[in-house]
Specification:
By secondary structure, this protein is mostly helical. It contains seven helices and four strands. A hairpin with a 5-residue loop joins strand 3 (200-205) and strand 4. Helix 2 packs antiparallel against helix 3 (56-70), helix 2 (14-49) crosses helix 4 and helix 2 packs antiparallel against helix 6.
Length: 221
């Protein structure tokens, strides 16, 4: 993912892909909240009533985890949160960075097509025999296989959007460079504050056993 200066007139429709990724991320976040609530209720039941909440393990394994992971893939690409190792690519120029981004997105598209194909076959097969959890009999699993396919489709669309942006954008600036700039600015601010000549506290005995406090610069004596 890169931060690109893109003309809204040329690629305005790509924003709908961004919104779709955000929508999926919201659903994934909702699944995260459900997972937290499920676990909290299970812990309360175990602690106070010596009884666990039925279906917690099955829901966590087959429902909440697949949703919160797969539905956030496209949004992570949009935000540039996927792991990137730019040790060799960071010193290169804008043109090389653009080529690297294009090649990366092409490989991402190819990989996602294969994953979606394989995932769809598994989802159709699971739906055919009504796959359910062996631990929790009432928990039907096959719908969540389709959720994974939808999440990978979101990543596919977002990779396509990023590919077009990398090709059409007039200026190309990797997110990593932006983050480094912000970090350096914050670091410089801290060092500026530390670099100021500090004030010291000196205690001067006063008459009557009390002490007066004065501040000033360090003085050598």
């Amino acid at each position: 993912m890169t931060t690109l200066e893109v003309s809204s007139e040329r690629v305005a429709w790509l924003r709908w892909i961004d919104r779709f990724s955000i929508l999926l991320a919201v659903l994934g976040g909702t699944a995260t909240v459900c997972l937290m609530g499920n676990v909290v209720l299970d812990v309360i039941g175990r602690f106070f009533f010596n009884r666990s909440l039925p279906g917690t393990l099955g829901l966590t394994q087959y429902a909440w985890m697949p949703m919160l992971i797969s539905l956030g893939l496209g949004y992570a690409l949009l935000r540039g949160e996927h792991i990137r190792v730019n040790l060799l690519t960071a010193p290169t120029g804008e043109r090389v960075q653009r080529i690297i981004e294009v090649v990366g997105m092409v490989f991402t598209l190819g990989t996602m097509v294969l994953f979606i194909w394989f995932g769809t076959e598994k989802a159709v097969e699971a739906m055919g025999f009504g796959e359910a959890s062996s631990v929790t009999s009432w928990l039907v699993i096959w719908p969540y296989r389709w959720v994974i396919v939808v999440g990978m489709a979101g990543l596919l669309l977002q990779a396509f959007a990023q590919l077009l942006r990398a090709i059409t954008a007039k200026e190309f600036s990797p997110v990593d460079d932006d983050e480094v700039t912000v970090a350096l600015e914050a670091e410089a601010t801290v060092f500026d504050e530390l670099g100021r000549e500090p004030e010291t506290v000196r205690y001067q005995p006063a008459v009557g056993g009390t002490a007066s406090v004065t501040t000033g610069k360090v003085e050598a004596r």
